[in-house]
Design brief:
By secondary structure, the chain is an alpha+beta fold. The chain has 3 domains: about 130 residues; about 130 residues; about 120 residues, Glucose Permease (Domain IIA). The chain is built from 4 helices and 12 strands. The strands form 2 sheets. Strands 1, 4, 5, 6, 7, 8, 9, 10, 11 and 12 form a 10-stranded antiparallel beta sheet that branches. It has a two-stranded antiparallel sheet with strand order 2-3. A hairpin with a 5-residue loop joins strand 2 and strand 3. The chain is rod-shaped, with a radius of gyration of 54 Å. It starts with a helix and ends in a 7-residue tail after the last strand. The N terminus is likely disordered.
C-alpha cells in the first residue's frame, strides 16, 4: 500500500512538474512573440523612414548633378576668358613695344624737323632754298637741286603724316584692346562670382546629403540592430523550448534516480530488519516498512545559482554610470590580461553565438533553474567555442576574453536577465546577487 502511495506521489510530482514547465514555457513564448511583433512594427516604421530618406537623397543628388554641370560649364567659360585675357595682354605688350619704337622714331624725326625749321629761320625763311637753287652751276644741276628739295619736302611731309597716322592708329588700337581687357575682366569677375555662388550651393547640398547620409546610416544601424534583435528573439524562442525540454528531462531523470534510490533503501532496510524467527516477522516487518524521506536535490534560492564566468577583477558594476561611459550598464565587466577562458555560468542552451557590431563576439545562453527562466550574455570575446542550440554545462569553456565590438580594452561584459532577453534590457538584474 505504501509503495502504491509513493508511486502515486512520484507520479503527481512529475505531473505537476510538467504542468509548471508547460505554463512557464507558454508564458515565455508569449512574451517572445509579443517582442517579435513590437520589433516587426519598428522595422516597418524604419523601412518607411528609410524610403523617405532615400527619396530625399535622390532629389538632392539630382540637384547636385545639375549644379555640377553648371559648374563645369562656368569653369570652361572662365578658362576660355582667361586664355582670351592672356592673348589680349600679349597683344597689348606687343603694341606697347611698337609704340615705344614709333615714339622714339617720332622723337628723332621731330628733332631733325626742328633743326630744319631753326635753320630756315636763321637764314631768313626761304632764302636757304633760293641759295641752293641759285647756286646751281648748270641747268642740269639746277634740275637735280630742285628735285632734291621737292623730295626732301615731300619726305618730311610724308614722315609727319605717317607718324601722326601710326601714332593715332596705335593709340586707338590700344584703347580698344584695353577696353576689351576691361570687359573681359568684368566678365571674369562675374563668372568668378557665379562660380563662388555655385560652389556655395554645392557645399550646401553636400551638407544636406551628408546629413541625410548620417540619418540613413543611423537608420541602417537601427535596422541592423532590429534585424539582430529579431535573430536573437527567434533563436531565443527555439532555445527556450530546448532549454525547458532539457531541464524537464533532467528533472525527470533526477526524480527517477531519487525514486530508485528510495526503493533500494527501502528494500535494504526491509532485508536488514527481517526477523530471525517467524514469530516476530509481522511486527518487525511492520516497523521497518516506512522508508526515509528522499533527500531533495539542492536548488538555488536566489543567491549563488551562477558561477563567476571568468577570472579577473570586476571593473564596472551594474546600473547607472557617469563620465565617459555614462548611461545604464545592464551587467558587470570583468577584466584580466592574457588568455582568459570564459565559462558558462550555469547549465543551459545556447540561444545565439555570433559576431555583433556592438557586443563583438558574444554568446547568449538560456537557463531554466528552479522553475525560473534566466538568460546570460557574454560579450566582447576574442573567440567563441560554442554554437547556436548547443547544450552547455556549468563551467564549460564557451570562449576567450577579448576586446571585440565597442570595447576599449580586454574584458568580459556579463549580463543576467531574469526571464527572456529583450532589447529594452528590462529583465536585467545585478549579476553580483546571483554569482557564487
Amino acid at each position: 500500500m505504501k509503495r502504491k502511495i509513493a508511486i502515486t506521489a512520484l507520479s503527481l510530482s512529475l505531473g505537476f512538474g510538467a504542468f509548471t514547465y508547460t505554463t512557464a514555457h507558454a508564458e515565455s513564448l508569449s512574451d517572445i512573440h509579443k517582442k517579435q511583433a513590437e520589433n516587426a512594427a519598428k522595422k516597418a516604421k524604419k523601412n518607411k523612414e528609410m524610403s523617405k530618406v532615400k527619396e530625399q537623397q535622390k532629389d538632392l543628388l539630382n540637384d547636385l548633378s545639375q549644379i555640377n554641370e553648371k559648374l563645369a560649364t562656368t569653369e570652361n567659360e572662365i578658362e576660355s576668358k582667361k586664355q582670351a585675357i592672356s592673348k589680349t595682354k600679349s597683344e597689348i605688350e606687343k603694341l606697347q613695344k611698337e609704340i615705344k619704337v614709333l615714339e622714339k622714331r617720332i622723337k628723332e624725326r621731330d628733332a631733325i624737323l626742328k633743326e630744319r625749321v631753326r635753320s630756315m629761320y636763321e637764314s631768313g625763311g626761304s632764302t636757304g632754298y633760293l641759295d641752293v637753287i641759285l647756286g646751281s652751276k648748270s641747268f642740269g644741276d639746277f634740275i637735280d637741286r630742285m628735285v632734291s628739295l621737292n623730295v626732301i619736302a615731300q619726305s618730311d611731309e610724308n614722315i609727319l603724316k605717317e607718324q601722326r597716322e601710326d601714332k593715332k592708329n596705335v593709340e586707338e588700337k590700344k584703347v580698344r584692346v584695353e577696353s576689351k581687357l576691361a570687359s573681359l575682366n568684368a566678365k571674369l569677375n562675374e563668372l568668378n562670382a557665379l562660380k563662388s555662388d555655385l560652389n556655395k550651393q554645392k557645399a550646401d547640398k553636400k551638407n544636406i546629403v551628408k546629413k541625410l547620409k548620417k540619418k540613413k546610416d543611423h537608420i541602417d544601424a537601427e535596422m541592423k540592430d532590429l534585424k539582430e534583435r529579431d535573430a536573437i528573439l527567434a533563436a531565443q524562442e527555439e532555445a527556450v523550448k530546448a532549454e525547458i525540454e532539457r531541464a524537464k528531462k533532467e528533472e525527470a531523470a533526477r526524480k527517477a534516480r531519487e525514486a530508485a534510490a528510495a526503493k533500494a533503501a527501502q528494500a535494504k532496510a526491509a532485508q536488514a530488519s527481517k526477523p530471525a524467527s517467524s514469530g516476530h516477522s509481522s511486527s518487525s516487518s511492520s516497523h521497518s516498512s516506512s522508508s526515509p524521506e528522499p533527500t531533495p536535490a539542492p536548488t538555488p534560492s536566489g543567491h549563488g545559482m551562477f558561477i563567476k564566468p571568468a577570472a579577473g577583477a570586476f571593473t564596472s558594476g551594474f546600473g547607472s554610470r557617469s563620465g565617459e561611459y555614462s548611461g545604464f550598464h545592464p551587467g558587470v565587466d570583468i577584466a584580466a590580461p592574457g588568455t582568459v577562458p570564459i565559462v558558462a555560468a550555469a547549465d543551459g542552451t545556447v540561444i545565439r553565438s555570433y559576431l555583433s557590431s556592438s557586443y563583438g563576439n558574444c554568446v547568449f545562453i538560456s537557463h531554466y533553474i528552479d522553475g525560473q527562466l534566466y538568460t546570460t550574455v557574454y560579450a566582447h570575446m576574442r573567440s567563441r567555442q560554442v554554437s547556436n542550440g548547443q547544450t552547455v554545462h556549468q563551467g564549460q569553456v564557451i570562449g576567450y576574453m577579448g576586446s571585440t565590438g565597442w570595447s576599449t580594452g580586454q574584458h568580459l561584459h556579463f549580463e543576467i536577465h531574469k526571464g527572456e532577453w529583450n532589447y529594452q534590457k528590462s529583465n536585467a538584474v545585478n549579476p553580483m546577487q546571483y554569482i557564487n
